[in-house]
Amino acid sequence: xxxxxxxxxxxxxxxxxxxxxxxxxxxxxxxxxxxxxxxxxxxxxxxxxxxxxxxxxxxxxxxxxxxxxxxxxxxxxxxxxxxxxxxxxxxxxxxxxxxxxxxxxxxxxxxxxxxxxxxxxxxxxxxxxxxxxxxxxxxxxxxxxxxxxxxxxxxxxxxxxxxxxxxxxxxxxxxxxxxxxxxxxxxxxxxxxxxxxxxxxxxxxxxxxxxxxxxxxxxxxxxxxxxxxxxxxxxxxxxxxxxxxxxxxxx
Length: 251
Hints:
By secondary structure, this protein is α+β, with helices and mostly antiparallel strands. It has helices at residues 81-87, 98-114, 118-137, 150-160, 167-173, 178-189, 193-211, 216-222, 228-238, 243-247; strands spanning 2-7, 14-16, 21-35, 38-42, 48-50, 56-71. α1 packs across α6 (178-189) and α2 packs antiparallel against α3 (118-137).
């Protein structure tokens, strides 16, 4: 999935999270964002990078027109596996220069005219992402890194699963930068860190549902879900069963 679209953000504040990354840029006007507690303004001079699963709140300011790119972990990976890992390792509000404005204006005009063409939207989104990556990180090469200590990561995750665990925190456990950790983790484990954390939370939840009499709200807390509803949604979506059916299953 890589979708580029034009949207006006209304003045009412909205708060949510989604499992895909998002790049928000302004063609005109401004919007206020807060991503995982990091606040900033999206305007002609500054964009916003929202990592997948990050809680974020946003509201437009008056008349505005935003170009928004939605993309998941697999987008562009064949071309540059580091690009998304580096751009979305943490919430960012990168500055935009005049040349980028020209590119952004062109993309906005093409989307306004041919926005129903998914191939064009994907191509324009990819160009904007690459251009932004070069401005934020330059053309540095990947650092050589050794084998990933998955057992050490598992122990840390198991001990802290009841709370929010960030990619930066996991990278620190194995003494890597977040971007290099993300790329090596996916190569070693076959999942992104976010996917692996969700799998760990679901595994513990399924075990507690089958082996303990704890109420659902307590199990949600123990496994790091924000609410009982979030636990139910996750088990239904990824395990194909509600917590009630899991509790009465034989495993």
